[in-house]
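Thread: Newbie trying to understand structure tokens

Hi all, I'm a second-year student working on a class project, and my supervisor (Dr. K.) asked me to get a predicted structure for one chain before our next meeting. I've only ever worked with sequences, so writing a 3D structure as a token string is new to me. If someone could post the tokens and maybe explain what I'm looking at, I'd be very grateful. Here's the chain:
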Amino acid sequence: MTLIVAENLAKSYGRVVAVDGLNLTLNEGSVTGLIGPNGAGKTTTIKMTLGLLKPDRGSVKVFGQDPWDNTAIRSLIGVVYEKAFFPPHQETLNYLKRVCRVFGVPESRAIEVLELVNLQEASDRQIKALSAGMLQKFAIAHALIHEPKLIVADEMTANLDPQARSALLDLVLQLNKDEKVTFLLSSHILPELSRVCDSVAIINKGKVWAIGKLTELYEKYAVGTIRISTDNPEALAVEIKKLNYVEGLETDLRGISVRVIEGNEEKLYEDTPKLAKKAKAKILGIETGSASLEELYRLAVSGKEKK
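---
Reply by user tm_fold:
Sure, no problem. This is what the structure looks like when written as tokens:
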């Protein structure tokens, strides 16, 4: 089942074009990343999807309906924002019980959602006493109260440290698998998303440049790319850059994605162990035809498809 369909969606703020002819689909059961830099149009797209902004042109359908000023649609969606704002002096459980009454669901649901996000031990804690990571988990609990089929999260990991981001994304995987919740995750922080997303929409300058399952996009764009997993990517990258058959590379916390001139893949396999020894780096794995999400984004936006 397709939950969201956006066609030729556009929105401007005065002379600033935020979204320009955007097309997007979201399928039930997926964890889809809406990825792109700040200012790419992600938040504006999400606001139109939630019915908070009216498009200048084009259309968006959520659960088959126009979301604009549509309270019925909002009851099917949970929302998590980059910065969660809740009454600071309220205790977590008591506040969620109030939310239960607003939605007309049993107050026992408040306890259930705290357990789902592993915050049951903080049930009597004031919201202001929650850490940044716990507060975002609490925001997910809040979004789950009415048992939505879809949760839309706009940059929910942006202000968290790496450990808190990882824990939050683990929770997304758990809820998708166990509770059958579909997620649309907007983010400009790409490394962690590749671990949880099965599909991505690559957005830049208000347009979706590529969309589909990650496996399909990697197959389409990751030609001549070799993924090296290592404990010291920065040091190893310095050495690999010196190879005359390397066209470019991208590093992240877990490794390096290297683009080589076609026909030189075996050379890189042979040279990497020697360079790793020189860089005092441990090789954890080498895989052909793979790329980091950052590299995939760059290739898609530059239009460098597999030949």
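A couple of things are worth pointing out once you decode it. The first strand starts at residue 2 and ends at 13. The chain has two domains: 2-213, 223-290. Feel free to ask follow-ups in this thread.
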